[in-house]
Structure formats: C-alpha cells, structure tokens
Amino acid sequence: MPMGSSVVIKQMGANPRPVPQPFLYPPGLFESEGAGSVDFWVCVRTRPRWEKKFAEWMRARRRTYFLPVFRHETTSGRKRRVSQKPLFPGFVFAAGNMDKRDFAATGCVAYVLRPRGRQEADLLRQELRDVWRGLTSGLYVEPVQNLAAGEACRIAEGPLRGVEAKFERMGREGRLILQVELLGGGIAVEVPADAVDVG
Description:
By secondary structure, the protein is mainly beta. It has helices at residues 51-60, 118-135, and strands spanning 6-10, 24-25, 41-46, 65-66, 69-76, 79-86, 91-95, 109-113, 140-144, 151-155, 164-170, 173-180, 185-192, 196-198.
C-alpha cells in the first residue's frame, strides 16, 4: 500500500485554532456520530498535485468526498505564506462503492483503493471521522514522517473525547496516533497522559 504523510497535532496555549476542512462535501458530513449517511468509502489516487482539482470536480457534481488538509506555513524573507496541503498526498476519499471507471471523465485518476469486506469498510469510515476530528479539534497541526505503534486507548477528556486510538508514552505526555490503515498514514496528537484511558 502507498504510504501517506502524517501529521502531529500539539496542544499549545498560543494560537490553537482548528484547521478548516474546505475540501469536504457535503458540509457537516462528519459532524453527526454516524459519519453522515456514508456507508462505504474508497481511496481515489489522483495524478500528482491534482487532489484539489479532483475535489472540485466531485463538488461540482454534488458527490460526497473528503480531502483532509493541514495548515502549512513557509517564510521567505519577510513574507509569510500559509497554504493547505493534503494530509495524504495524491489521495481523495470518495463515498460509494466505485471504481476507476466512475471517475474516467476527470482524466486525473490513476487508480482506486477499495476496502476488502465490511469490517475494513467500517474501519475506514471510523478512521476518516477520527482524522477529521483531530484536524478540526483546535490543536496545532505539524507534519511528521513516521507513526509508531502504541498501546490501545480511549481519550477520556478534551476535544477528542471518546476517540479510540494508539497511545505512545513520552514522559508526562504522549502521542495519540489516529491512522488510516488502508493508506498507512494518519495523524499524531500530543496529549497529556492523564487524558487517556489505556487498556
């Protein structure tokens, strides 16, 4: 499976704000407990740097999709530039049991990854919702390269309350790892150890 990029989310006092997720249709898709009415998601692999164009194509046709993005800041001289980069470069999540032929009109789809069976489809649906919750939690987002395995846990308090994930201890704090197994990437959220129920 292709490796996606990862993101670390740090809880900081200065400048904690949610990362808006504009590449999502319909708006409010993940705000209900059941991740909307979407029962099945596929991972659409686009041509390099065509994720946003594909998302626009989906929106124009009122098709349900999710392109998770994180805030990226660069500084050149005195100029500061803020952009939104895809969390999983080259991938957009589309709702429905579809294949490459369903997106042939776009001219930008390389292939489609589909969950194998009901259990994997349910897992992908929950993982996408958890990633959305992490990205919109108001915690600082920063890219990292590798995610490590940890202890199974559930968040007991804060903006990610109730989320189940892996927890990796680092002193009095730790990283909560939310991943999308189908792509091998995800996000890591730095949280206090006392906010986590391990086991």
